[in-house]
Amino acid sequence: MNKPNPIVKEYNHPEFAEVIDLIRAARNRVLHVANSAMIDLYWQLGEFISNKLSTAQWGDGVVEQLALHIEQNAPDLKGFSKKNLWRMKQFYETYAPKAQFVSALLRQISWTNNLLIISRCHTEEEREFYLQKSIDEHFSSRELERQINSALYERTMLNKPKVSAVMRQTTPTAEQLFRDQYILEFIGAHGDHIENTFRLSLIQQMKKVILELGKDFIFIDQEYRLQVGNSDFRIDLLFYHRELQCLVAFELKNEPFKPEHLGQLNFYLEALDRDVKKTHENPSIGVLLCKDKDDEVVEYALSRCLSPTMVAEYKLCLPNKQLLQQKMREIYESAHNDVSL
User: Are 180 and 161 in contact (CB under 8 A)?
Assistant: First the structure.
């Protein structure tokens, strides 16, 4: 008769966690080296095929013959179909003019993300934007695709965040870390209801919210309680930003921006800095997230604001990317014409 396995006691030695961190760090280094080597290989193959075709040493049909040759003579080598070989050629030709500048970036993201960028992005600037974002935010392929679909590049280029002068002075990098508009299409129709329902919908989708905000945001709590005097107050959403090393309070308004909204947010920031902020942390930042806003009204309201605050709007559907691209073309053509004159 088999004896039951003895119950193994779970140990929690303080140094065990350090061992796990060492293992994970080594594994990540191995994966990074392997990915870098693979990207280099695909680049070399793309260059080889491109040169053969451009010099008329090969016809288009030779690429298919090469794919069949690899399949028949080295069946253990996967990923070298005719389609993938053409992609490697496209990969090389897309970046060859700026190879020295972008080569380090290309090696830091997966082949799948590289393919997404070269197939979905139409300009050099847009490709470099998503390359850098993929590295900074550690985008998975699904996350990268979602950001391209949400026109992150166009939104970032067209609309700079509306921030107070104090925020610009105390946190000069904030304008690169926050956005003028946040796309929350994953909330669906819930955002059209009362603010409480909207907040709860955001909580249920917090992983996607963090993706839209940026991965340096750490969620602390919803309806974060502040006690001032004998009264209690609640911040809709409270985050901590790792790079800025400060608390970030989000206030949600399911209506267009009104100047009086800033008074409430300024009060919350004062309470956070006095009673919650740690001595080594930077002053807290406030973000008023509204359903809509008039930029001129926002500019007037922020001009006398004495706290590091900004006003942004949220949308519950993906933007019209073609319309944004058209606006960018118009701005570029206008700037080009001005220079010509």
Answer: yes
